[in-house]
Write a structure and sequence with these properties.
Radius of gyration: 23 Å
Helix content: over 70%
Structural class: mainly alpha
Shape: globular
Order of helices and strands: HHHHHHHHHHHHHHHHH
Distance between the termini: 80 Å
Number of strands: 0
Largest sheet: none
Length: 354
């Protein structure tokens, strides 16, 4: 015991104080970084769940109510600066983890339900939308890099595709912000409006899920619209959308090759990011297909998934700044709107013809 006391006494008090100060600094960093934003996101999520008890709101899922509440809060009251890190964490990490857990609600039999025709619809829609957006952007005089960002966000997977595409396009920060804001806006319009169009267009749950998955911008927006129209629609929409997300890497590679070919500078190719949650989602679906998971556990995970998806959508709403749409003029906004109409109409035509 005396030897332990002697060793403790030999440790410089300054070292202990420095370690304690470093520990407090790390805790303060977490509190000032992630926690405030997550608290704000959780409050909006709670409001979204509570609003469903109000007459007239019961028809909407908490995910849709959360994104609307987030947009209202952000653009009316403003998002606190100290909350931005936690909001970004909820929109990216939490949302992607929720998508992985969503795999426990699917089996391989359901995954293959979209069939080769469904995969073809997704691929054709993606390619046609990208080419249409790039061509129209050139015709109406939108900066080429901004047009590529809008094309990627519309045709592939929203903000994630915009950020990934910018690795090779190297556009200005204002262009990235503009593209994300416009994609979030029109993706939200699709998420809210497409479920209302399903009965008017005569789409059953399978057809609507395929349409939503092939045309709506963000993963979370697809999930919100899909499950709003029914469980089967939500499952088909998720699979179709993740098929689009999986095409992000080859699309970025193609853009990188185009950028290298048109540039006389550095010829090194950027390494495109492969969304990890796509592979994890597939692994969870495979596990759910091979292993009998207790019903109680599945129900608990389904509730946790819904809560995290709602938090992710609340964060997405908080990130949507309508004022950013005015900063670059009307032409890029018109381009994003035209791309939104094209992907919706083109994919609907393919679904109807299938």
């Amino acid at each position: 015991m005396s030897s332990l006391t002697r060793i403790a006494n030999d440790i410089p008090k300054s070292t202990i104080s420095a370690d304690l100060a470093a520990g407090r600094k790390r805790l303060d960093s977490v509190w000032n970084g992630i926690i405030p934003g997550m608290v704000l996101v959780a409050m909006i999520t709670a409001v979204a769940f509570s609003a469903r008890n109000v007459s007239g709101f019961a028809l909407f899922s908490p995910m849709i109510l959360a994104v609307v509440a987030g947009m209202v809060y952000s653009n009316v009251l403003g998002t606190p600066v100290h909350a931005k890190a936690g909001i970004a964490f909820s929109q990216k990490r939490l949302l992607r983890f929720a998508i992985v857990l969503l795999g426990f609600q699917l089996t391989l039999g359901q995954v293959v339900s979209i069939g080769a025709g469904g995969v073809g619809i997704v691929a054709l829609t993606l390619g046609a939308t990208f080419l249409f957006t790039i061509t129209l952007g050139r015709l109406i005089g939108v900066d080429a890099k901004l047009a590529q960002l809008i094309a990627a966000g519309t045709s592939i997977c929203g903000a994630s595709a915009i950020v990934a595409t910018n690795i090779v396009t190297d556009a200005r920060d204002e262009d990235v912000t503009y593209a994300v804001a416009s994609i979030t806006l029109f993706g939200t319009v699709a998420m809210l409006g497409f479920p209302l169009l399903a009965p008017l267009l005569g789409l059953d749950q399978h057809a609507f899920g395929l349409w939503a998955g092939a045309s709506i911008h963000e993963v979370a927006q697809v999930i919100g619209a899909g499950f709003q129209n029914g469980t089967q629609s939500g499952e088909i929409a998720t699979v179709a959308k993740l098929t689009r997300v999986a095409m992000l890497a080859p699309m970025v590679v193609a853009l990188g090759l185009m950028a290298r070919r048109g540039s006389s500078g550095d010829q090194s190719a950027a390494r495109p990011p492969m969304p990890w949650f796509v592979a994890a989602f597939v692994a969870v679906v495979a596990l759910n297909s091979l292993v009998a998971i207790p019903v109680e556990m599945k129900q608990a995970m389904a509730l946790a998934t819904t809560i995290m998806l709602t938090m992710g959508l609340a964060a997405m709403g908080l990130q949507a700044d309508i004022s950013q749409l005015r900063s670059r003029g009307l032409r890029p906004l018109a381009l994003a709107f035209s791309a939104f109409l094209f992907i919706g109409g083109f994919s609907l035509m393919l679904v109807k013809l299938a």
